[in-house]
Design a protein that fits this description.
Helix content: over 70%
Number of helices: 11
Order of helices and strands: HHHHHHHHHHH
Largest sheet: none
Number of strands: 0
Strand content: under 5%
Radius of gyration: 31 Å
Structural class: mainly alpha
Distance between the termini: 67 Å
């Protein structure tokens, strides 16, 4: 996981080359803003580009005006005009850099999303889309265990972490009992459990301790407890079913021995 996205840091540096270029050569921020807006379909960057253009045009007209005044009246206003000109140019550069750096995270997120979807000129919930994408990629219980382990690293709450460990242990038993026939189990539990953990992580990230937030956390913990209990019951039911099947097979075998006069 990188600094700003779910991709590695090396990927972020590679995709953010234009931003690094703008930092090294601030004069290129105009191009950087245009690139970020068109590459990631960011409406705010295109609106910012218009603002930067207006800012630049105003600076240019001011310089032309000062050059005209200086030519007509000599250099009596030179120091004042230089100071104002430097302030305007500096403001232009600062505004451009702030626009680029403030939207770097969203730019990289949208570039990541573009790898598996066609972007539109609208806002996206990056984390929700990435998590749902991961859920779709979960094909086996082993995949789901890896997903749970990643959540265990992200979530700070010790109680939820313990619940995740319990889930991982239970999933190992489910895989052995069901012997690979886990499609229905996956359909029943994967999306719901992942959604619960994602919600808890988002609440944790808010770092709020209002009564309502505390109640939400407790509700999510209780729901996870219910899910764990349901999976335990499903395991017990499967074991009972297997035992019954073994008993029936044994009864049939013994009866066949009686029928053949062997007992």
């Amino acid at each position: 996981m990188g600094w700003l996205t779910e991709k590695p840091i090396s990927w972020e540096l590679k995709k953010g080359w234009i931003i690094l270029l703008c930092v090294v050569f601030p004069v290129l921020t105009f191009i950087g803003i245009w690139y970020m807006g068109t590459r990631a379909k960011m409406s705010k960057m295109m609106r910012g580009l218009i603002s930067v253009g207006i800012f630049f045009a105003f600076d240019f007209l001011y310089m032309c005006f000062i050059a005209y005044v200086w030519k007509r009246s000599g250099n009596s206003y030179l120091h004042l005009s230089d100071a104002i000109g430097m302030i305007l140019v500096g403001s232009f550069m600062v505004y451009s850099m702030v626009l680029v750096t403030a939207n770097t995270k969203e730019f990289l997120e949208r570039v990541h999303l573009s790898e598996f979807m066609d972007l539109e000129w609208k806002e996206y919930d990056y984390l929700a889309l990435i998590r749902s994408m991961k859920v779709r990629k979960v094909q086996t219980l082993a995949d789901f265990i890896v997903e749970l382990e990643s959540w265990d690293k992200l979530i700070v709450d010790q109680q939820v972490s313990d619940q995740i460990v319990s889930l991982i242990i239970l999933l190992g038993k489910v895989d052995k009992i069901k012997k690979g026939q886990t499609e229905l189990f996956m359909e029943r539990h994967v999306f719901s459990l992942t959604s619960l953990l994602r919600q808890f992580h988002e609440v944790e990230l808010s770092k709020l301790n209002y009564t309502a937030i505390i109640e939400i956390k407790e509700k999510l913990r209780s729901t996870l407890d219910i899910a764990i209990a349901a999976i335990k019951q499903e395991i017990l039911d499967d074991l009972k079913q297997q035992n019954k099947f073994v008993e029936v097979e044994a009864d049939v075998y013994i009866q066949s021995l009686y029928n053949e006069g062997l007992l």
